[in-house]
Structure formats: C-alpha cells, structure tokens
Amino acid sequence: MPDFYLSYPARLNPHLEEARRHTREWARGMGMLEGSGIWSVSDLEAHDYALLCAYTHPDCAAEVLSLVTDWYVWVFFFDDHFLETFKRTRDRTAGKAYLERLPRFMPLDPAEGFPEPTNPVEAGLADLWARTVPAMSPAWRRRFVRSTENLLNESLWELANIDAGRISNPLEYIEMRRKVGGAPWSAGLVEFAAGAEVPEAVADTRPLRVLRDAFSDAVHLRNDLFSYEREVRDEGELSNGVLVMETFLKCSTGEAAEAVNDLLTSRVQQFEHTALTELTPLFAEHGLDPAQRAAVLAYAKGLQDWQAGGHEWHLRSSRYMNDGGAAATRGGGIAGAGGAAPWLRPAGIGTSAADLAGTLRTTLGSAVTGARGLRRHAHVPHPVGPSVIPDLRMPFTARLSPHLEAARRETVEWGERMGMLRAQPGVPGSNVWSRAKLAGYDFPLCAAGIHPDATPEQLDITSAWLTWGTYGDDYYPAVFGRTGDPAGARACTDRLKLFTPIEDPSATPEPTNALERGLADLWRRTAGPMTIESRRAFRRTFRDMVDSWLWELDNGAAHRVPDPVDYIEMRRLTFGSDFTMSLCRLGHGQRVPEAIHRSGPMRSLENSAADWACLLNDVFSYQKEIEYEGEVHNAVLVAQNFFGCDYPTALRMTHALMESRLEQFQLVASNELPVLYDDFDLDEEARAVLDAYVTDLEHWLSGILRWHRDCRRYKEAELREDAAAPPTAGDPADAWTGSLLPLPPDPAPPVVPAARPGPKDVRDGSGGGDTDREPAGPGTPAGPALPTIPLFPRGLGTSAARIPAPPT
Q: At what angle do helices 49-56 and 16-29 cross, to 10 degrees?
C-alpha cells in the first residue's frame, strides 16, 4: 500500500457495540444472512459495517448510528447480491428488471406505501426508507433518491464493461465511479447523521458540488487501493482505479497504485481548498443565516470525519485487507499500514495515529505533498516555443456550409456594430480585439464546420455566439484579471445574467458595453423562437459558462494550477461545450424524453466529445497561454504540474487521453445508444432525432479540429505580432477583405528534447496497437505513447522518497 495523505484524525462513536447488536438482528430479519446465499453471520461480523459507521459518524446518537449502519449493511449486501446474481452470470436483462423495481420502494411520500418485497434488498430498502425520510425535507429526499438510483442503475454500466471485457479510460472512470461507487449517496447520509441538511438554495452550487465530488473521488480511490486484490484478482472486476491507471499508463500495479494515491491526495486537497476559500463567499452571496451556515459547516466536517473514519475501517475490515485486517494481526495492530513492524505498532482501536514508523513515513510524505502544493502555486510565464501538434486522429469528415463567405463578412460587421473592436469607455484594458484580429480568428469557419447544413441566418447566429463567447473569454482576464478586480468581474457577470430573461427575451436592460450589447442581440434572436422550458435550459448552460470565467480568474489570482479532475470538469464550462451542445439539443423539441439526456450513456457521449475538444484546444493554445498570457488553465500544464514531468511527456499524456475519449465517443454511439433506445422503448422518430444528434456531435468535433488547424488565433506569428503591437481601435488598415489576411510562413517547429525514458508506455488510444508511430516532423510526438511518471523512484512504498521538481 502507498503512504496516504491523512489530514484528519479518526474518532470512534461510543455506541459501536449497540450498533453491532442492532444491525445483526436487522440483517437477519431482512433475510440477508442464513439462507440468503450471499452472507453468513460470520461474513457480516468480519466486514463490521458498524465499525465503519462508528468511525465515519463519530458524534451521532445511538439510534441514528444504528439506522445509518443498517443503510450500509443494505448497500453492501446489494453490491454482493448484484454481483452473485447478475454480474457473474452476465444477465443484463434480468439485472435491469431487478433494478427498475427498486425506486418503487423510495416514494417521496412514505404514506404512498410500497410493493410487496420479493428479496432481501427490496425488504431492507422499504424498511430503511420508512425509518429515515420523516426527519428530512422533500428536497433532501429528491436528492437522496437521485443518488440512490444512480448507484443502482450504473451497476448496469459495470455489468456491460465486464461483459465486453472493457476497461474504461480515467476520465470516464472518475465520472461513473461517483455513481456506482455510492459516495454521493454517503454524503446524503452525512446530512442525516449530522443533523446538518444542506440548504436547498446552495445544494447545487459549485462549492457544494466540489465538496461532494472531491469527497466522493477520494473515498472511491482509497477503496480501489484497498480492494484491488479482492475485486480484480478474485471477482474479475474491471471497475477499479488502479486497474484503470495500470491499463492507461501501461505500468506496473505498484506504479499505478502510486498514481492513484497521488490523485487521491489531490482530491482531498481540493476539498480542503474549497472548504477554506469558497464557502464564506458563498454564504454572503446567498445571504445564508447563521443556522444555515452552521449546517453547511457541520456537513463539511461530517465529510471530513467520513474520510478519516473510512480509511481506518479499510485498514481493519476483512472485506478488503489481506489476512483479515487489523483484527487478525498479532496484538491487534494495523495490517497494511506501510508494513511497519508489529513491535513499532501500538495495539487497539483508534491507535493508528501513534504508529511510529508510519508517522516517520507520513512526515516525509507530507514534505513531498507540501512541495507539490507549493509547485501548484508557483507557475510563472516562460518561453515554450510554438505548440507542437501531435498526429490527431479524426474519423469524421469535415463539411463546410456553402454560406461561409457571407457569414465571414457579417460576423466582422456584427462585431463592429456591437462595439467589440474598440475600447469600452472608461474601462482600462478593454481594447482586446481589432478588425483584423476578429477576421483572423475566423469564427464562421468553426460555425460552418459545426453546422454545415445551417441556413444563412442560423450560421450567422452560431458565428456570432462563438464570437461573443471568445470575446468574453478574452475580455475577463484582460479587464479583471490583470487589474486584480474580482468584485468587478462578479458585478459584470451578474449584469450579464440580466440579459437572459425567460418570459420576454427582448425585455433586457439598456446595454452599457459590447458584452451586454452583443448578448442582448443574440438572446433575442436565439431564445425568441424557443419554448419557455427550452429557454430555461439554454439559460442554465449560459450561466454555467459565464460563472466558470470567475473560477478561472480566482485560480489566476492565486497562481494556482488546478487539480486535474476539477480542471477537466470546469474546462467543459469555460470552453462552452455544454452551452454550444445545448443549441443542438434544443432542436429536438419534445420528441425525446428528458430522461434520455440525463442518462449515463448520453452524458458519457457528450462528455467524451467535450473533453476531446477541450484537450484539442489546450494542445493548440499551449504557447499562447503559457508563454504569452501566463495562463494556468491548460491540460498540458496541469499534467506537467501533477506528474512533475516535461512538456513532451505531458503532451503525449494529453494526446493519449484525447484518443481514449474519441474512442469512447464512438463506442457509446455504436454500442450503448442502441441499448438505451430499447430500454426507453423509443419510437422511430425519436431514434432518428438522436441519431441526427450524434451526427451533429460528429460535425462539432470535425469542425472544431478544422478551425484550430486553419485559424490564426494560435499561430506563433500572430502571437509575436500581438505582443509587439497591442491592437488599436478603428485602424483603417484592418479593412475586411472577405477572406483571411495572408500570414507569413510559420517558422520551422522547434526540436523538443525527448522525454526521459520511463519503464512503460501508455496505451495507443487509437486502437492501432502499441507500436509508436513515426513523428510527423521535428519535435512532433510520435503518437500517444509515453513514459508513465518519470523522474521519480518506482515501486510500492516509494512515494515518500520522491523529490519534487523545482518550480518553473
């Protein structure tokens, strides 16, 4: 086992023995023990879920602890019951029917009653629901039902992967593990056990989502490290983070375990960062009263207790630890805690913090962790040379709208009319674009590839949205980032939201700048023909995008390179992926059930496409952002910072991830969507609409690639010119000619030093085998093969000996 980052002490609830007695009788009464074919009494006692709950909920009353323990007995029994009944037999049809019955045992109003249970899982759920929900609000009930259904239904995703012998890619795994792993469900029980229900007004805000998701990821990654032997080597399980890393990086199990532990540490630190920096502003923004603030803080503390207690339980439970856990070791010491000799380990429950050898290792590991944290805040702009573009695979043919030239002329004229090509009165730094710059960016080329069959009016609107979004993305750091004005940025964002009315799209305030003027025009033209519900959905994606710009500013002000998972999830918003995709979805009208768009396969399809496009942009924009803008939001930089590796290695990692996401997009479209259609019993019209949506996303991907290759936004010559001569307003020499202005030939690409050799190569995400491809030119990475984590000692137990790379 690696050395874990443990920042909270584990504490034990004094009502442990009472919970043990109660839950044993409860499980027997529900039919989970004798005769179930799943567990015996000795299994239940060895797993010791009462100990898990006593550690993870150390402060709750005896009755609450017993009820929470029953919930965990139920969920672990469900997991084992589903494994034996459906995973081992690969019976998806019966598994689906089994899962579809379970939500009927969770009515929002328990007075509605339950069906007659037919197995211990149904009987247990009916009993637990009736005992729990009277104490909680309808809002909590809805959230808990959703997380429980996610936990249940995504078991089909695991079953499908096992049946296909498929191991997911890291991004897909993190997303799906949150659902099937159950930690968001655990977070809901933290609200119940701590008596700290999160106010509905903030339950879905970014800080609370990040707390829940970072908590969930850390819980799941820790569980993966402990359960690798049991799940992968005994059960044939493919849903394990160590196995995912082992496969993606093509490295040893020990190296994969170290990588998973590094990600676990990063997620715990993301939790801490969010709790310390984002909750207080959230309280003020939403005007929470003292009781509501106390509830949120108690909830955060409850999640901390769960992390500490969950780790302690994993060390002790025979469900995961070899040789029966701590209870089976000589003198009751802690097995697996880094291999400390028994005489260095004190015995008994709650003594792991006094492990002398472990303390020494933890101290050394904390020094490395702290150095890595300092490196995360120490990035400074530096010359990197032209961005190196790897050999990018695109299986979809790009087509361009025949209305492209007209859209090019109209887009520049529109930008001029909206005031984007001149400084905003009284706003320093707002002179971000010129006429020639907007022409060179050529957003109509992107629109023409994304929507090749659009009418002239539709193409103009799409081109204008791309123009507006990119202008805002450039305007915020220029006006608010360089001057250190977060309050001004938030005021600007609040104003922008006023320009997206639902009832009457033309009822907007009087615009005061180019951003507001452009948004008022686009909202009227776009939202006007929509239904009320479509406008609400469209506005939600718009607001998510502009709020994400504030997140970028906050990180920039702290010189903070983001956590990898937080970066990818926020990048979809900053890039406007959901926003632009929503334009395609809205065209479906009411012909497709909303549940389809919320389903796992559809979210997987959209997220894999979004991630590919975001990573593509980061590859092309690396020099622009790192050398010229001092940006910290770039996937290649995030990989460099997280793994402590050089640019070629990080670029190859990014390329490999792009390949795996593209492969996943194709897999979902060809294999999972037809099953989804059958599951929802869709008619031919709805199937045709969704097939057309997949084609829209294919156009979206190929069109974005075509634009990145042909536009001037990322060319080194353009970047040098901008650095030497900032744009001026109204320069007659910038007159639009109807086509791209000529560019001088690009200089030869730089020769990038080869990455230091590592022990293994990551998978070739294109599916073409593991052989490296020949480079396309000097300094071009030879496909996605790369060393895994260079520069560090390797093997189990060596993470504390790593020497962090110096800040660049």
A: 130
Helix (H, G, I), strand (E, B) or coil at 370: helix
β-strand partners of 633: none
CA distances from 136 to 113, 142, 191, 452, 511 (A): 18, 10, 9, 51, 44
Q: Which of 423, 469, 474 is nearest to 446 (CA)?
A: 469
Give, in order, the Cα–Cα distances in Å from 32 to each of 81, 121, 229, 387.
9, 8, 25, 59
Give 431-457 pLDDT, tens digit per residue: 999 999 999 999 999 999 999 999 999
User: Is-above-0.90 flag for pTM?
Assistant: no
For 761, phi then psi, to 5°, come to -115, 150
CA angle centred on 539, ends 295 and 633, rounded to 5°: 75
Among 800, 609, 568, which residue's Cα sits nearest to residue 695?
A: 609
- The alpha carbon dihedral of 329, 334, 339, 345 has a sign of negative
Q: To the nearest 10°, report the CA torsion of 265, 271, 272, 277.
A: 140
CB 471 within 8 A of CB 463: no
Q: What angle do CA 226, 303, 229 make, to 5 degrees?
A: 5
Residue with tokens 């009319």: 417
Question: Do the Cβ atoms of 603 and 359 come closer than 8 Å?
Answer: no
- Which of 290, 295, 146 has the alpha carbon at shortest distance from 208? 295
Q: How many CB atoms lie within 10 A of CB 91?
A: 15
184-220 residue pLDDT tens: 899 999 999 999 999 999 999 999 999 999 999 999 9
Closest CA relative to residue 593, chosen from 693, 690, 698 = 690
Nearest residue to 383 (alpha-carbon basis) of 619, 754, 716, 775: 716
Distance CA 215, CA 303 (A): 7
- C-alpha distance across the termini of the chain, in Å: 31
The Cα angle at residue 553 between residues 549 and 555, in degrees rounded to 5:
115
Instruction: Count Cβ atoms below 10 Å from residue 243 Cβ, excluding itself.
Output: 22
